[in-house]
Structure formats: C-alpha cells, structure tokens
Amino acid sequence: MKLSAPEARLALLLKTQQSGKRCFRCKRVPAAKVKDPSKQVWRLILHHVDDNNENNPIDGSNHEAACDSCNLILRKPYKHTKGYKYHKNWKEVLNSPHRRRTLNQRPAQMQKAEKAYPFFADFLERTIAKLIEVDEDSLIDAAAKEFFEAQNESISQETLGTYLDRLCNRINGNYERFQKDKEWWVRKRPEQR
Fold it and tell me: What architecture is the 108-188 domain classified under in CATH?
C-alpha cells in the first residue's frame, strides 16, 4: 500500500533517527533554509530500496533517506515511478548537466573532509610526539585554529571530535582517551604484544 504524505514524512523521520540525518549514498547533510533561492538547498526524501513505492514494511527495511539528486540517480525509469513515465523528455532528465555533475563531483563538505581528516591525524601525531599526552578540549581547539590558519577554512569542533573518535577506536586506533582530574586526555596507545 502506498504511503500518504504524512506517513512518508513519519517514515523518513524514523529512518533519519536510526541512521543519522544524512543521505545514505553521498552522506550529504541537508542544508537549513537559505534566503537566497539561487543557492542549491538539499533535502532528504524517502527512497524505496527496491523502487517499489507500494512495498512499505513496518520495520522500514525498504526505506532509506536520500537527497534529491541521489534519489533521481537511484530511481529506475518506467518502474513504479510516475515522474519518468509521464515526463515527455525523460532522456533529457537522465542526461541533464546537473545529474552528470552530481555523479562526477563530490559536495564541498566531502572535499573539505578529505583535506581535514589527514590534517587532523598529522596534527595529533605531531602534538602527541611533543607533549606525550594532551587535554582533549585543548587539542580540538588548537587543531581548529591551525586548520583555519593553514587552509583559510573553518572546521567545527564536532567534526574534529568525530575524527578523534576514529583515531581513538579501540580496535584499530593508534590513540586512546583516558580520564585525568575529571577531564578527558589523549595519548598514544601502548604497543600490545
């Protein structure tokens, strides 16, 4: 049975609560409302994994949160979708410059992350080499400041915290967090034999 608009919004809300508020394919986060309508605003919509809009299991296993462009890329022509079936120039839609651009280029956030993560990993290694152990908050503040000075771009402390989580991973991370005087500190993980 096909979902009504309120049911689809609820299913999308549940899916974003389960897997985060980002596109499952390109990991793009939807932008807030922008005053300038010429700027592209991404929004998340409910994507059906099997392209069947009538297949809506209660557990949400057939649903994913996708941005507009990824949903357009993932949808198959003439299959359960009204847009392609009734669009006179559906081949033009498939070959539009906007669609080709989204296939070939990554969003600015992803490009920035590709520079920021290696920068932060190198910064952490240099800092730990000098200080042996460092306060987590001071580390993140200093990394944000140095990244801004080096790249002339800002990066959020939340993003740097995520990178630190990755580097302090218990399974394959080279660093560990520990508590000292009610504050969290970071140091190099001791070698295990």
Answer: Orthogonal Bundle (1.10)
Answering whether pTM is above 0.70, one says no
Residue type, 2: K
Residue 38, C-beta contacts closer than 8 angstroms, at least 6 positions apart: none
In this structure, what DSSP letter does residue 122 have?
H
Tokens of 174: 């080279």
- 181 φ/ψ sector (left φ>0, alpha ψ -120 to 50, else beta): left
Mean pLDDT of the chain: 76
Question: What is the DSSP code (8-state) at residue 49?
Answer: T
Place of tokens 């390109």: 26
Q: Look at residue 125 in the predicted model and tell me its pLDDT.
A: 94
Question: What pLDDT is attached to residue 84?
Answer: 44
pLDDT tens digit sequence for 63-116:
888 877 777 777 655 444 444 444 445 555 555 555 544 444 666 777 778 888
Domain boundaries defined on the chain: 5-104, 108-188
Tell me the residue type at 72: L
Angle at 173 between CA 175 and CA 128, to 5 degrees: 25
Cβ atoms within 10 Å of 153's Cβ, excluding its own: 11
Q: 10 Å Cβ neighbour count for 28?
A: 21
Q: Which amino acid is at 33?
A: K
Residue 112 CB burial class (10 angstroms; 0-12, 13-18, ≥19):
middle
